[in-house]
Description:
Number of domains: 1
Distance between the termini: 20 Å
Strand content: 35-45%
Bound molecules: calcium ion
Number of helices: 4
Low-confidence stretches: 1-16
CATH topology: Neuraminidase
Helix content: 10-25%
Radius of gyration: 24 Å
Mean pLDDT: 93
Number of strands: 29
Structural class: mainly beta
CATH class: Mainly Beta
CATH superfamily: TolB, C-terminal domain
Strand order of the largest sheet: 12-13-14-15-19-20
Largest sheet: 6 strands, mixed
Amino acid sequence: xxxxxxxxxxxxxxxxxxxxxxxxxxxxxxxxxxxxxxxxxxxxxxxxxxxxxxxxxxxxxxxxxxxxxxxxxxxxxxxxxxxxxxxxxxxxxxxxxxxxxxxxxxxxxxxxxxxxxxxxxxxxxxxxxxxxxxxxxxxxxxxxxxxxxxxxxxxxxxxxxxxxxxxxxxxxxxxxxxxxxxxxxxxxxxxxxxxxxxxxxxxxxxxxxxxxxxxxxxxxxxxxxxxxxxxxxxxxxxxxxxxxxxxxxxxxxxxxxxxxxxxxxxxxxxxxxxxxxxxxxxxxxxxxxxxxxxxxxxxxxxxxxxxxxxxxxxxxxxxxxxxxxxxxxxxxxxxxxxxxxxxxxxxxxxxxxxxxxxxxxxxxxxxxxxxxxxxxxxxxxxxxxxxxxxxxxxxxxxxxxxxxxxxxxxxxxxxxxxxxxxxxxx
Length: 426
Ligand SMILES: [Ca+2]
Ligand SMILES: [Ca+2]
Ligand SMILES: [Ca+2]
Ligand SMILES: [Ca+2]
């Protein structure tokens, strides 16, 4: 073995990282499996460095991880109906979780007792549990967004799911339209569907103080949303953003102001792309329509989104937003403008629409993430990707710096190399 190969072998033995099929386009970043062996994970949340909770769609189970290690036994096992897009779909921790342990979940409930899954769908509900250090206990509070007893369509698609706390201390979540067609779908001016928007709640699950609407829409912050798997707050501006799923055309990324009407079922994608216009919408007092900040003409089922400001990836990503999807296994990367109210896009994307596969894939940043259902930035600044289809949470972080041992090994290798050179030249 030639000396330089010894050096390389020594060095690589100490900086080896597990290889995955997943790729990202930045060679300074590496993808590693973080939590594995999960059953259809739909989300995760950190409660501290290396610790938190992960949820499973069809088991209705919440599992705990600590020190980066997953506990096999659940800390809560809900009775869920997981038909189609239903199931255990969202989790968020109270801003004061360290003191009160409040943990919020969003799921499709059934008529079965205990933790038995299946059965007949009853409703989609937000519930508040409490972490006692070993289990989630004491559910008492709940709020329903769409019930079988409403006498309207029941889905089973378009259940929404994401939960996130805002910088204002309110709980935000998304509900899909459950295939209903009423006020929140811009169809009826009088009948509420109770679904199809972004809700904003106080921590006791009552309609959020300061919400834009009254009456049946009091829990809502925005409406006209067909379905959403992604909500995130920009840590710089504190603006809320969502992703929305179109029917045969137009997935959307939106900046969501209080009172936002996204347009569904009258308008999907940019208003200029269809014959209906803003006059065709149900305009609640305090509401306002606006076009999406970006659209995908051919829907791919976009899902979670996450801002990378302040991440461990470095300041070159401070203006970046990552978006996952259901259909292609990709992560897409878009860059915000200076005011962080839209995206910087040129060429064929300057129209803010990915019209073709080539336009769409020009935004591709990662591949082979099988059905992305969650994106979270950890306390370590890494990006964590929940991949439902792989039963895995991946971690994307900078390639590790050489450790002391690696440096020592490289030093020994270099000494050996110099020794051999001296012998050869002697
Ligand atoms: Ca269960
Ligand atoms: Ca819209
Ligand atoms: Ca139009
Ligand atoms: Ca275009």
